[in-house]
Known about the structure:
The protein contains 1 helix and 19 strands. With 313 residues, the chain is mostly beta strands. It is rod-shaped and about 150 Å long.
Amino acid sequence: MKNKNLSNLFLFIMSAAILLISACEQNKKTAAAAFEVPVFAVNTVLAVQGQIQDYITLSGDIYAGSTVDVYPEVQFGKIAEILVSVGSRVNRGTSLVAIDPSRPGMTYRWSYATAPISGTIVALPAQIGMMVSSAVPLARIAGGSGLEIRLNVAERFISRMSVNLPCEVTLDAWPGETFYGSISEVSPTIDLTSRTMEVRVNVRDTSNKLKPGMFAKVRVVTERKNNIVKIPAAAVISRFGEQYVYIIEKDAENPEINLAKKRVITPGILIDGVMEITSGLAPNEEIIVRGQTLLDDGSRVNIIERVTPLSAN
């Protein structure tokens, strides 16, 4: 009986020792986990060297570059025949409208209104049977092939307007196509009613797709910079009066570990979600563009995705 009691005591002590050792190992694992360095998942992108441009988007109507109204040479008469139609191409001296100047009881030879310049008929108010008047034009001719867009620019933008600024033109009539031109004229006065200034844009159209009367959207490029560093604006953090990004650096002791390093930057132009960086970044530096809001300087990161860089143009 005594041996049996000793045996039971020995088993109890061994069981208690095993449980104690197991608890100690678990506490060690818990403590190690408590001191484990957190790793943050991020997306990155490379800073790009290229071009950035600031612009103002406006809209206006397309007009013929130069137009001439045709008036009758006779003071009295009735339109007897119309020899052209809207869209007709005419040369200088071409007969446009025949006018019968006859009076009751008297018959006269017809008089003809002719084109003073070569161009295209863009308006034809004349109608057969209509009495002519020296104050009412019979036709309107657009000379040459030049077109212009007339824009009304709000007062807050007029300081940014100047002759020869490049323009990009798009139209609903030709989706996906861009036409190019430049500012040819800036009005010296402001309309008192609308508080706008008229600006005229010459537009190049070798394809003859643009027509007078069309509605156009115009992007006036007010500033263009080349060979600058640019990044997605979403990568920039603004806190406590400074703006900065996080770049990727390798850990000095273990190159397989990626660290997030804070880099204060100086921003420039911000347009369409793209920011110019005037100082603080170099081209091709890898910056964190997503997941950076929870980081501290020196945080460990795991790069989940490398986003396609911005276009250089």
